[in-house]
Amino acid sequence: MFGLRLTRACLLGVAVLMCLPQPAVAWSLDIAAASRRVFLHVGNGTYDTTNATINLVQVSVPAAQLGNGSALAMTSNSTQSGSLLDGYTTCPNPGQQLLIGASYRRSAASQPASATLSVTSPANLTSSAGDTIPFTQISWTVSAAGSPQPAVIPAGTFNGGTQTLATIPANRYIENCHSFAFANSALRAAGMYTGQVRYTISSP
Amino acid sequence: MNYVKALTLLVMMSAAALWAQTRAMVLDDSLSQVETPALEMQWRPHTQDAIDAGMEAWVRVRVHIDTRPLVGQRGRVYLVLPVDQPPAVEAVWSSSGVLLPGRVVSGERGLAYSGLISASSLRDVITVRLRTSSEWFSTSRRLRFHYEFEPD
Fold first, then answer.
1. pLDDT tens digits, residue range A65-105?
2. With respect to CATH, is domain B25-151 assigned 2.40.480?
3. Cβ(B128)–Cβ(A28) under 8 Å?
4. Could you state, in order of their start, the residue ranges of all structural domains in chain B?
5. Does B2 touch chain A (CB under 8 A)?
6. What gap in Å lies between CA A39 and CA A47, rounded to an integer?
7. What is the pTM of this model?
8. How far is CA B127 from the centre of its chain?
9. Which residues does A contribute to its contact with B (CB < 8 Å)?
10. Any idea what the Cα angle at residue A78 is, between residues A76 and A80, rounded to 5°?
11. Which of B107, B90, B150, B102 is nearest to B126 (CA)?
12. What is the ipTM of this complex?
């Protein structure tokens, strides 16, 4: 019985509050949420800014090891050892690693929940003489010093096409270091073989 | 028993809110001018744990509060930011004249002036920094600030 009386009193109190005159609007401000944003750097990069650097990953196969099936580590001309996020030395050996970082930011829950990081490689590396080496001969391992998720972008092997590497949740930044290796599984004609891969981040 | 306690608490909170609201007087500051009435939030840098740090924007407001009915009274003037939608907005302002610097979060009020009202208006230019987390319900929102006076 007491509870019932209290409920009525409570409802009365709420009703009185709702009937009070609402304050007049003095100054108002229309604000738009920040636009969706994706960011990606591969090797040398600059946080939230375009950096045109294209790093080179290479290997020279010693004559004595030609096509012997022993994988050869590739070197990098990247100098990016520190995270663009906070400067932490995520990749302590940039000469053998490529630091890759990506983020996706959304401002409203109605926007897509994630972005996708992918890489596209051509079918072959080619030489000036027209000889080829399948891009599938190149693979990578991953690491990230001090990170609880060193494989946030997983290890893999190029497939000579487009392959998905990672899904980036909204408002997250992911990064790790990629160390490349050449499989060296067959004898090739002498020459300089080149090819370019392209990393892409996208969100619908 | 818990039901009764909860209702009692609700009644007490309602009474307190009612008391505060009836004591506070909404002030006319319709002559205030916002230098950029339409803003776009900018992303803040990611934090060290790679989690988003939200968005922010800055705006200057030429404040002009009509205090003619209050001349000779002592009290406090608050900047009020009613709730519009989640997530909450934090407004931190700095002043260059009679108003105090302060901070207010959606659904709350922040002290902007305290003391004797000696003139027919309170005028100042304030710079307001707005911050929110991301994940808004919509891609735009309207903030409706106002000032209120509470006598000593």
1. 999 999 999 999 999 999 998 899 999 999 999 999 999 99
2. no
3. no
4. 25-151
5. no
6. 8
7. 0.78
8. 13
9. 2-3, 6-7, 9-10, 13-14, 16-17, 20, 23-35, 37, 47-48, 85-86, 88, 103, 105-110, 170-175
10. 140
11. B102
12. 0.78
